[in-house]
Specification:
By secondary structure, this protein is mainly α. It has a domain of about 100 residues. It is built from 8 helices and no strands.
Length: about 180
């Protein structure tokens, strides 16, 4: 039963979310917590890991949740569930591409979806930011200051068009060094 539940939950997430992994994050977070599969802090920790590993974010997080919940078979079911809707939609779109390409309705729908996707990404940023920073602010200011400085440094590097792998690696190294030396 857990395998069907994992498949169906991630199938719905994949079916009703436009804009990629970050747009899926609020729905993933609410579904996973509602089912009791993970805690908010576990999701936040895995987001960092997921961004540092190869592959699409939604596939990584669904595989991880499935693995933690029901082993390798659970990972397969959750991953298949999140990927299958996109695969089916792409097959349909590819078949009817010429008809859809110049449709004002399709163009209007895509124009309307763009701001919604940005809103979903912003909502997940606020949700995760609150989870990460609220406990730290109330207990210790140093982790928040380090995170803020790290965010500013990485934003500058990103603005200067430095390679994303460099930014991810540098973030990890600075996080490990500060966490180890300061005992955070």
């Amino acid at each position: 039963m857990i395998f069907l539940d994992l498949f169906w939950t991630f199938f719905k997430i994949g079916l009703f979310t436009f804009g990629g992994g970050y747009a899926m994050l609020p729905l993933i977070q609410s579904e996973v917590i509602a089912h009791g599969w993970m805690e908010t802090t576990d999701i936040v920790n895995f987001i960092a890991v997921s961004e540092s590993t190869p592959g699409p974010f939604a596939v990584n997080i669904s595989t991880y949740v499935g693995r933690i919940t029901a082993g390798i078979s659970g990972a397969f079911c959750a991953t298949l569930g999140v990927v299958l809707p996109s695969f089916l939609v792409i097959l349909i779109v590819a078949k009817f591409y010429e008809r859809f390409r110049s449709s004002r309705i399709v163009e209007g729908a895509m124009t309307g979806l763009r701001p919604a996707v940005i809103g979903l990404i912003a909502a997940s940023l606020l949700s995760i930011g609150t989870t990460v920073f609220t406990p730290a602010v109330s207990t210790r200011w140093l982790p928040v200051a380090i995170s803020g400085c790290l965010f500013i440094l990485m934003s500058i590097l990103s603005f200067k068009k430095k390679h994303p792998i460099l930014i991810i690696a540098l973030s990890a190294v600075i996080g490990i060094i500060t966490g180890y030396t300061l005992g955070l």
